[in-house]
Write a structure and sequence with these properties.
mainly alpha, two-stranded antiparallel ribbon, 50 helices, globular, Blm10_mid, proteasome binding, Proteasome activator Blm10 middle HEAT repeats region domain-containing protein, peptidase activator activity, PSME4
Length: 1239
């Protein structure tokens, strides 16, 4: 399939224009063609999202019509497999195709989604369905149903009885059933995700089924009945069973019961802030078309339910949220008990754990409920409403004493007007004057739930103090974290125009402010805790509160943190202060969060400079984390005066100094209540501080260089901590470099060059590589211009004087001190080859000459390894597709005059998905030609030499081994650098030929799943292109050499070939596995994307994100398309030969090589709930994930090694390989035994 690439060959990196054009930012980038059916999407939400994602990619994607036809074909095959009862392997194959297809981001039409979900549901509830078929179907069913907007009970209904019938029979096993199947867990998983599709008319039938199961003499049976009730009962209409559940709760003393009950109530509280959900008339409006034969529909009388027959349904609202006063008091009692605070009479609150010891093991097979702390926080937040009379305002953050309970002295009138016979009219009609009116019960911010929370926090305040910490401290800190998280989530949800919460029930600004005042004091106490879990919870809490009310949080944090940073006496207090500042970073730098916070940034940065400290790695980690968090939101640089803009003058009273002066608030004055500066005055102050960025950046870089200089020698005292330290400092410096102004970048580049050109330190080779990489990522043109001639000259000089001339091949060999200058310059040069291959075209003659010299003259392990990595980095930079920059604003905005004159107004800018613009590197013809020239001039001669080395007659000695390893290392790294240069051409004949030897046995060829390639940014996709043919032929030649070399080394079998064998096996892995997303692993991109979301998230349900998130999202979509093309690889004769060789090496008589095959070459894949995120333990298992038929081909060799008379080492290798999951499960099936010809 031809790929429609934009013509970027006409672009120049140094076109006339603003100076910033040299920073690698291209304005004239043609957007790829978007198919018409995607481009014209306006109404369909999913199609609009697809259009925006298509716009972010640098190449054209397939039309929705074409990809939907592919999906329809997959659905056809699934239907045929189900009709034929071909669940394994038929259904499992095509089910995995649904998973791969969904990674592409195309929408599933509602009708197809509905029908496929119903099909999966019935497959999962078929009695006797094996677990290995049930698991993937249940997972895909959950994926289809997880979006409440795409499917709801109006669209589809599902029966509840099939799941219950299977679960009830499987939960309590008879004692003679020694095997415990996972069926119960899967049924619970299904019920959890399908309950919202159970018809609410089935509630009475469910109660009729579940309530009789409650057995007061058996806690296990009671807990099982409770699980059935709280898992199957529809949440939409709890009017008939909610009082029952509270009565049962009061009669059972069990922590396990409490946790599931609290989870249930938290879901009810969140759902029923919308009163229309529980409207009884909805029951009759929903079609009742999903009943099984054994399911009835009893209709019990509902006359005792309040408001059941009202013409206008007002929801489930009662005294406090959806709970009565009595129920609310009971919940708050459970809240205190859940914290496990050591109260004087705490024994009466904590006996539930003793009762739970009677529970039998079957209950452990049920899914665990949500943590009670999170559930309690959710209940409290979603019960908040302006439902009472507000109490007078207070300037204190928390009450000095614990107020008395509501109504403990005198009966009080109730503001809701209908409880206990007291009406609001009693209050309004009371006579005026002294002694003539009743004492009125008031609540904090007019909210009963908030008032209860404030009283509880006030009563527990002492338990937050670090000197009174214990097991309860982490629970208390987590509790306030979840409180503010849920409050923030609900607050922003209620700001949306489609919010269904009644206006009179919504959160108010006064409630938000009083909540922060109530919680901040205890948060400030707990932030000094030495428990990492507590500190992490408080960080999250402070971040949410700083977004809610930044003026109440920022000033007190600065008041506490600045003295700790200035004194630098107590290390723990210093790191706690840095963490707290990192938590409230949005309030400091994001102008839309807190406009007045930015003026504090530079003084804080200056106080943090001593935090870069080699002797205190933990403090350095905290400091770099803060710097990374801040640097992704701002531009470091002075402001260019705009002549058309009137600049507010900064008078002497507003000018800032480098010292941050924070004074305590006077008594009785609340932080944030004082009169602040105007917007113009804040901008004027910030303008003045921006002029000091140059001094800070220079001081920071000097501090980083000082840290690198004092690193321990590699292989000596240095270890994992030092590696992590260098990574964290380099990560922060990279983020800073990306956001430097042109003048500051030139200053930094000169400082780095001055250091790199006048120093050589063997202990900082890795560090200097990362340091140069940071500046190259920002401006590759200037970086190469500065470093490449210098490094090339030094490298050639060192090679001419004998550097790296001492032959070695061992991974454990120590580099010679005399080679330090060579390694130093190689590391620098590798760092420059990091971004935008077009910048390297100017130096292609120099680079090719240098590669030839390195190939010929580097004989030591460290020398030729670094040289090969340099070749790989260069090829990857030339031929790969990747984003060119990662600034916090779009490239056109960064280059605009308005931004340069007032970038401080844009700090913390967030983008929606349709606003972000991304500049990609797409290899042009000149870059591809340069890459092919490297293969012709460097790689081919190396391959020629290797082929000569394995010809008969060569003596296997140290010189031969060294030549073999270093030449092969060059060739291996060269092919590893072009995973997306050539798109493999898979014909229908190739697919049919491969299917003949598939691992899937007893299956018709048409029913074996296969993948059609899609556009994914491959540089050469036309098989008729001579460049495509050249690189394909050369790679096949490389594979043929690997087979020949493997035969030769196995024939030798000598101990002095171990290093060569290890290099050979690495090369086989490169040949077989380096394709598509091998460098942009889909699973790694998923992890990084979610990590980016977690770091930058300000509240749940956020839609606008920093631009870096959208860049990461685009990389994820690109990796998904590469992964699609990598799922199915074709085995040719060369691949089959290499599979046989790898199998033989797994049986070799040297344990070091067997371990090498097992561990060193293993590719670890991230673990997740998705069944495809598995960990490959051996190269063979690795190959099984990419090539079909590997197990079928390898098993005869492994079985033969187990025959009597074979060497013990071969038997051990065979048993170890068969012990792997992929081989072991396949081997025990036995279906392939008839095909095996064992001698």
């Amino acid at each position: 399939m031809a790929m429609d690439l934009p013509d970027v060959s006409i672009l120049q990196l140094d076109d006339p224009g603003p100076p910033s054009h040299s920073r690698g930012i291209l304005n004239d980038v043609h957007e790829p063609y978007i198919p018409e059916d995607i481009a014209q999407a306006t109404d369909d939400r999913d199609m609009v999202k697809l259009k925006h994602y298509a716009r972010l990619l640098p190449y054209s994607i397939e039309s929705n019509k074409k990809v939907q036809q592919l999906f329809e074909f997959i659905l056809l095959r699934i239907t045929q497999c189900v009709e034929a009862k071909d669940y394994d392997p038929g259904l499992q194959q095509w089910d995995s195709m649904v998973t791969y297809w969904s990674m592409l981001g195309y929408p599933i039409p509602k009708e197809k989604r509905k029908r496929l979900a119903i099909l999966y549901y019935h497959i999962c509830t078929t009695p006797g369905m094996p677990a290995h078929t049930l698991a993937p179907c249940a997972e895909n069913l959950q994926t289809l149903l997880q979006s409440k907007k795409k499917l709801n009970v109006d669209d589809m209904r599902l029966p509840w009885k099939p799941i219950y019938n299977i679960l009830s029979q499987d939960l309590f096993l008879k004692r003679r059933q020694f095997e415990i199947p996972p069926t119960s867990w899967y049924m619970c998983y299904l019920a959890e995700h399908t309950r919202r599709f159970y018809h609410p008319a089935a509630i009475d039938e469910m109660l009729k089924t579940f309530v009789p199961l409650i057995n007061g003499t058996s806690l296990s049976r009671t807990l099982a009945a409770q699980y059935y009730m709280f898992t199957f009962l529809p949440l939409s209409h709890p009017q008939s069973y909610l009082p029952l559940t509270f009565r049962l709760w009061e009669s059972v003393n069990s922590y396990m019961y409490d946790e599931r009950m609290l989870q249930f109530l938290s879901r009810l509280a969140e759902m029923h802030i919308d009163p229309t959900v529980s409207d009884p008339r909805r029951i009759e409006q929903i079609p009742d078309d999903a009943r099984t034969e054994d399911e009835g529909r009893p209709n019990w009388s509902k006359d005792d339910i309040k408001g059941m027959h009202n013409s206008r349904w007002m929801g489930l609202y009662q005294d406090v949220g959806i709970f009565s006063e009595r129920e609310w008091n009971y919940i708050m009692c459970k809240c205190v008990a859940s914290m496990e605070i050591p109260l004087a009479d705490g024994g009466s609150l904590s006996t539930g754990t003793n009762a739970d010891s009677q529970v039998t093991f079957e209950l452990d097979r049920l899914p665990k409920p949500t943590w009670r702390i999170a559930s309690l926080a959710q209940i409290i937040v979603y019960s908040m409403a302006p439902d009472g009379i507000p109490s007078p305002g207070s300037n204190v953050s928390t009450p000095f004493h614990t107020p008395s309970g509501s109504g403990t002295s005198t009966p009080l009138p109730h503001s809701n007007g209908h409880v206990n016979g007291h009406a609001l009219g009693d209050y309004l009609s009371a006579p005026l004057g002294k002694g003539g009116h009743l004492k009125v019960q008031t609540y904090l911010a007019g909210s009963k739930a908030l008032d209860s929370l404030a009283k509880m926090i006030a009563s527990c305040e002492g338990f937050f103090h670090p000197t009174n910490s214990g097991s309860w401290t982490s629970d208390l800190s987590a509790f306030i974290k979840y409180i503010v998280y849920n409050f923030n989530k609900r607050w922003h949800a209620e700001q949306k125009p489609d919010c269904k919460t009644p206006t009179h029930r919504r959160l108010t600004r006064n409630m938000r402010r009083e909540l922060v005042k109530s919680l901040r004091t205890v948060a400030f106490l707990a932030m000094w805790s030495q428990d990492n879990t507590t500190v992490s919870n408080i960080q999250s809490c402070l971040k949410s509160m700083s977004v809610m009310e930044p003026d109440l949080i920022l000033h007190p944090i600065l008041e506490r943190a600045v003295p700790a940073l200035e004194a630098l006496v107590e290390t723990q207090r210093t790191t706690a202060s840095i963490k707290a500042l990192g938590a409230i970073a949005p309030a400091i730098v994001c102008r839309d969060v807190y406009y007045a916070g930015a003026k504090h940034l530079l003084p804080i940065l200056e106080l943090l400079l001593p935090g870069i400290d080699l002797n205190d790695p933990y403090k350095t980690f905290c400091t770099t984390s803060f710097l990374t968090e801040v640097a992704q939101y701002i531009k470091f640089g002075e402001l260019e005066d705009d002549l058309q803009q009137t600049v507010v003058s900064v008078d002497d009273g507003l000018k800032t100094s480098s010292k941050l002066e924070i004074s305590s608030m006077p008594d009785g004055v609340e932080a944030g209540s004082e009169k602040g500066l105007t917007t113009e005055e804040e901008d004027a102050v910030l303008r003045d501080t921006c002029s000091n960025f140059a001094d800070w950046v220079a001081a920071f870089l000097r501090r980083v260089i000082l840290l690198f200089e004092n690193l321990p020698e590699e292989g000596a005292a240095g270890g994992q901590t030092e590696v992590q330290l260098v990574d964290s400092v380099s990560g922060a410096f990279s983020q800073i470099c990306v956001h430097l102004s042109d003048s500051l970048f030139d200053m930094v580049l000169n400082m780095v060059f001055d250091y790199a050109s006048t120093n050589v330190r063997s202990n900082a080779v890795r560090a200097i590589h990362q340091l140069v990489e940071c500046v190259a990522n920002t401006d590759p043109v200037k970086t190469l211009e500065k470093f490449l001639p210098f490094c090339a000259r030094n490298i050639e000089t060192e090679l001419d004087h004998g550097a790296s001339s001492m032959r070695s091949t061992s991974l454990k060999s120590t580099p010679l001190p005399s080679d330090a200058t060579l390694h130093w310059n190689l590391a620098i040069l590798r760092g420059t080859m990091y971004n935008d291959g077009r910048a390297a075209l100017k130096y292609k003659d120099t680079l090719i000459h240098l590669f030839k010299a390195l190939l010929k003259k580097t004989l030591a392990k460290r020398g030729y390894s670094s040289s090969a990595k340099l070749v790989s980095s260069t090829l990857l930079t030339l031929t790969h597709t990747y984003p060119l920059e990662n600034k916090f604003v779009n490239p056109d905005e960064w280059l605009s005059d308005e931004f340069r004159a007032s970038h401080h107004k844009h700090w913390g800018r967030l983008y929606k998905h349709d606003e972000a613009k991304i500049t990609w590197h797409v290899p042009n013809a000149e870059e591809i030609d340069f890459a092919l020239e490297i293969f012709r001039e460097v790689v081919e001669p190396a391959l020629d030499t290797l082929e000569q080395l394995v010809e008969p007659g060569h003596t296997i000695d140290a010189i031969w081994r060294n030549d073999f390893c270093r030449y092969l290392n060059f060739v291996r790294h060269a092919f590893a650098g072009v995973p997306t240069l050539v798109k493999e051409n898979i014909t229908s004949d190739d697919i049919r030929e491969t299917m003949k030897t598939s691992d899937i046995l007893n299956e018709t060829m048409e029913m074996i799943a296969s993948i059609d390639p899609l556009n994914a940014g491959f540089a050469l996709s036309d098989p008729a292109d001579p460049r495509h043919q050249y690189i394909t032929k050369l790679k096949k030649r490389f594979g043929a050499f690997l087979y020949k070399a493997s035969n030769e080394l196995r024939r030798q079998g000598e101990e002095n070939t171990v290093d060569a064998v290890q290099m050979l096996i690495r090369s086989i892995r490169t040949y077989m596995m380096e394709y598509g997303d091998s460098r942009d692993s889909l699973y790694l991109q998923v992890q990084r994307y979610h990590s980016e979301l977690n770091v930058t998230r300000q509240y749940a349900g956020q839609k606008a994100w920093p631009r870096a998130v959208w860049v990461r999202k685009a990389r994820l979509h690109h990796a998904a398309r590469l992964h699609w093309n990598s799922v199915e690889r074709i085995r040719t004769t060369v691949e089959n030969q290499l599979i046989d060789e790898v199998t033989e090496w797994s049986l070799w008589h040297y344990a070091t090589v067997r371990e090498y095959v097992v561990s060193l070459i293993a590719k670890s894949v991230l673990s997740s709930t998705n069944r495809f995120y598995r960990t490959s333990q051996t190269l063979l298992q690795n190959l099984c994930s990419c090539f079909d038929g590997v197990r079928r081909r390898s098993l005869p060799i492994l079985y033969k090694a187990l025959e009597p008379g074979n060497e013990d080492d071969r038997m051990k290798g065979a048993l170890w390989t068969l012990n792997g999951d992929l081989f072991g499960k396949y081997a025990v099936k036995g279906e392939h035994w008839n095909d095996l010809e064992l001698s």
